[in-house]
Amino acid sequence: MSTTRRTLVFVLLFAMAALSVAPSCGSGSDPSDTSGTLADDDKPTPPPGETDDDATPTPPPGADDDTTPGDDDTSPTEPCDSADLPLHLIQLPAGFKICVWAKDVPAARQLALGEAGTVFVGTTQSRVYALRDEDGDHRAEKKFTIAEGLNAPNGVAFRDGDLYVGEISRITRYLDIESQLASLPVPQVVTTEYPTDTHHGTKFIKFGPDGKLYVPVGAPCNVCEKEDARFASITRINADGSGQEIFARGIRNTVGFDWQPGTGDLWFTDNGRDWLGDDLPSDELNRAQTAGLHFGFPFCHQGDTLDPELGIGRNCADYVPPALKTGAHVAGLGMRFYTGSMFPAKYQGGIITAQHGSWNRSAKVGYRVMFVGVSGSSVTGYEPLATGWLQGEQYFGRPVDVQVLPDGSVLVSDDFAGLIYRISYN
Description:
Blueprint: H1 3-16, E1 26-27, E2 96-102, E3 108-113, E4 119-123, E5 128-132, E6 142-147, E7 155-159, E8 162-166, E9 171-174, E10 188-191, E11 206-207, E12 213-217, E13 233-237, E14 245-249, E15 257-259, E16 266-270, E17 283-288, E18 293-294, E19 300-301, E20 305-306, E21 324-327, E22 332-337, E23 351-355, E24 368-375, E25 378-386, E26 390-391, E27 394-395, E28 399-404, E29 410-414, E30 419-425
Parallel strand pairs: 14-18
Antiparallel strand pairs: 1-2, 2-30, 3-4, 4-5, 5-6, 7-8, 8-9, 9-10, 11-12, 12-13, 13-14, 15-16, 16-17, 17-21, 19-20, 22-23, 23-24, 24-25, 26-27, 28-29, 29-30
């Protein structure tokens, strides 16, 4: 979306909020809507300037940031009372608040935490950033550009001191990254053995308990069946790029997953297909307790709805149903199990997930951060954690990924506003 259009959206939202008195940051109040009319974010082609579940408009080369490669930006971000975002419109449960943790992070997508506290940020443009809060004021004072000229480096994963970056068809590794943030480090190529299709081609990458790097390959379409079995799957590879194999199939487009503490089960989001109406099919939260499972796409959607074309002759009972239907077109993306101690006890062991928001539904849905209660293999609750980026049919932010910090607060990336929020509890 162009800067002009984004500015107009902000102006309109401020006009809508003019009758209220804005506190210095978004603070907690009980959300009034715990229902979810939700589902995906895929497409044929979105309207010009619109973003979808895994894409952000790509600017001309060199136009996606205002920092010099390798240089740090030491200008501190504004506290919660930033002049360009109406954070007082964000609703949270009592005791929670949301503040801007880092600004000027264009197309911010997947987040990863380094051993020394560095937060790495992938994007759907061409750069990867590193952010640091060095004085403990809960704002990132420093921003480093650690990679540039890449092909939608959405995925970032940190392991044993090294940063892995996932592009459309390539994964690279930056050795001992936190010791060389102020320069553009030279990467090592881990693999180039992934499809080059850009439709649902962005990668969310993460190391599993088995030491392997998990890499999804989205379906290169709204709904289709391809000869290459890697499409609509989650694959995994060794840290050196060898041993590529399919872990799970029938997954249209996952842009977020995590392993449940204790069980080691893989839970992941999945965006449902388009053009079956406003309310079908639902997006999904799934659980894979072992390798080799099939979750239905493109034959069965949301565990109980056969595709009108590709589902002929199939049976939904042959596939693994979702652990939770999260709603049609909500575009659930990043998710993490909450492992911190700051939030109340009910959040311990549950899932916090970002919903990017719909692009083609007649009435927009999503644009929020949700909490999913989990006990063992069962979902026990589903409710909003942060809502308000969507005001009527206008929005001023699109949550993408979440990351739990060592102090128990949670970061949320926003590729529309180009910043990172911090949700805390007191």
